[in-house]
Amino acid sequence: MTPSTLPAEIDELWDRRTGLTPADAAARDTVVAAVGMLDRGEARVARVDPQTDRVLVDERAKRAILLSFRLLGMVEGQVGPFRHHDRIPLKRFGPGVRVVPGAVARWGSHHAPGVTLMPSFTNIGGFVDAGTMVDTWATVGSCAQIGRNVHLSGGVGIGGVLEPPTAVPVVVEDESFVGSRSLVVEGARVRTGAKLGAGVVLTGSTRVYDAETGERLPSGEAPPWSVCVNATRPRTFGGGTFGLSCLLVIKRLEEGEVHDKLALDTLFREHGLGG
Predict the structure, then answer these.
(1) Which residues, at least 6 apart from 27, have a Cβ–Cβ distance to it below 8 Å?
(2) What is the DSSP letter of 23?
(3) Of 162, 155, 109, nearest to 136 (Cα)?
């Protein structure tokens, strides 16, 4: 297991989880404290190891989240006229986070100062770093990791994952842009500075190609400092030849290059897509 900042008691509780109930006060207090660390950003479900470039998953953090569903009882909450009935309460935001009415985030997610939440949803275990915009109707799924200065455009779906605890969540790295109505799911990774056009579907197994060279790139990853769009590749089956979805890299950016929104929109329109 990846080294964790959460207490080892979580593992002991996990081993006897089938017998736990909300009446187990000591166990509940341990889990609440652990999820509270995720909520405050003192721990996180996953991070990129700067030495190996691998995504490291804190299995203990996922176990704490799953245990909270077993140990927390159903309670009623209220925001204005809206009533909620859930085991996980809504988040209380710290200073510096802009939360537009209609934005919902569950306790156990973390939003750093400088984050802007339009009417959107962030699930437990999600991590959203400083300067990021989560635009209208975008969803940050459970345990998804979103970097600094990212723009998740309207209607973007960032997939979540809790089980199995070892599964790698979606990671969207710093300075990235995810176009409107795109889906990034199944542990896919948007690397630093990548820009995805509208309607891109990127899964953990999506094939990725370079438009200039035809080279096949690592599956399930938008390369760093690249501009990517949806495409199809022909594949022949018994019933005929069909076009299967893939990700196409249409442009490489200089590392650290700021690609203004107007230029990005123009580039996407040239390839038949909105920004």
Answers:
(1) 13, 20, 67, 71
(2) T
(3) 155
**Rounded distance, CA 90 to CA 264, Å?**
36
96 three-state secondary structure: coil
CB of 205 closer than 8 Å to CB of 179? no
Q: pLDDT in tens for each of the 275 residues of the chain?
A: 678 999 999 999 999 999 999 999 999 999 999 999 999 999 999 999 999 999 999 999 999 999 999 999 998 888 777 888 999 999 999 999 999 999 999 999 999 999 999 999 999 999 999 999 999 999 999 999 999 999 999 999 999 999 998 899 999 999 999 999 999 999 999 999 999 999 999 999 999 999 999 999 999 999 999 999 999 999 999 999 999 999 999 999 988 776 566 566 666 666 665 54
| Predicted TM-score of the model (pTM) | 0.92
10 Å CB burial of residue 24 (0-12, 13-18, 19+) is middle
The tokens describing 271, both together, are 């390839």
Q: Which of 197, 194, 216 is nearest to 207 (CA)?
A: 216
Dist CA 92 CA 205 (whole Å): 36
Write out the two tokens for 218.
């690592």
Structure tokens at 263: 């230029």
> Does an H or E element contain 201, and which?
strand 201-202
Contact assessment for residue 172 and residue 155, using Cβ atoms and an 8 Å cutoff: no
d(CA 25, CA 94): 27
Q: What is the 3-state secondary structure (H, E, C) of 34-65?
A: HHHHHHCCCCCCEEECCCCCCEEECHHHHHHH
* Distance between CA atoms of residues 43 and 61, nearest Å: 8
